[in-house]
Amino acid sequence: MATGKGRKELIEMVSDCFAELRDFLRFAGENSDDALRAVISAIAPYQPGSLRQKLEGRQRAMGRSVCEVPTTHELWAIFRAADFRCSECGSQLRITLDRIDPKLGYERTNLRVLCADCNRQRSRPNSAPGSRLNLRVFRAVRELLAGDPETFPSDLEIKQVAGVSDLSGSYYLVRFLRHRWPSRVSTPRDANPEATG
Ligand SMILES: [Zn+2]
């Protein structure tokens, strides 16, 4: 799909993205097969056959006719029409189909493409913000480590730089990054609350 971005802007965006990806792979163990598999499986579309079975099961559970559920061909057409992007945020990650009006069934005209994060946010508005929070938190950790590569940042520092008041949705991501931080030369500053000011 065409965008309004200029070529130079696009090249800069891609190289920023590669720099972030390279830095994340320092934590993930530089296993390029794993990294590529993760990207492919997050973007690869939902198999229309298994999606149809799932939707039929839900339709049945609501006491509605499964004949209303679109065919696999029609499900694929809905994804194609949306260019395999979330109708709310444009993300291509782990997209699925969701009902527009939850009071209605899974008929063709009541379906739209949503990513996993938007879907979760919609069904459970108070749930943890999912992978978007992880992205902000990772960027904050990356920025802090660029300033001081010897010391893994404290939760307080991460919260301040990420601009979030609650880290609980990314609790285990932070622990994972801390465990994998390649330098591992120092103890976390969390151990000493006074150090974070
Ligand atoms: Zn979305």
| Strand line-up of the largest beta sheet | 1-2
Count of DSSP strands: 2
Structural class category: mainly alpha
Distance between the termini: 48 Å
Compounds present?
zinc ion
* Residues in helix, %: 40-55%
- CATH fold call of the largest domain: His-Me finger endonuclease fold
* Name of the CATH first level of the largest domain: Alpha Beta
The CATH architecture classification of the largest domain is 3-Layer(aba) Sandwich
Task: Please give the largest β-sheet.
Answer: 2 strands, antiparallel
Spans with pLDDT under 50 lasting ≥5 residues?
A: 185-197
Outline the structure in words.
The chain is mainly α. It has 3 domains: 12-43, no CATH class; 48-123, His-Me finger endonuclease fold, CATH 3.40.1800; 131-196, no CATH class. Helices cover 51% and strands 5% of the residues. The chain is built from 8 helices and 2 strands, in the order ααααββαααα. α3 crosses α4 and α6 crosses α7. The longest helix has 22 residues, at 7-28. The radius of gyration is 21 Å and the shape is elongated. The termini are far apart. Mean pLDDT is 84; it is low at 185-197. The structure holds zinc ion (ZN). Residues 86, 88-89, 91, 114-115, 117-118 line the site of zinc ion.
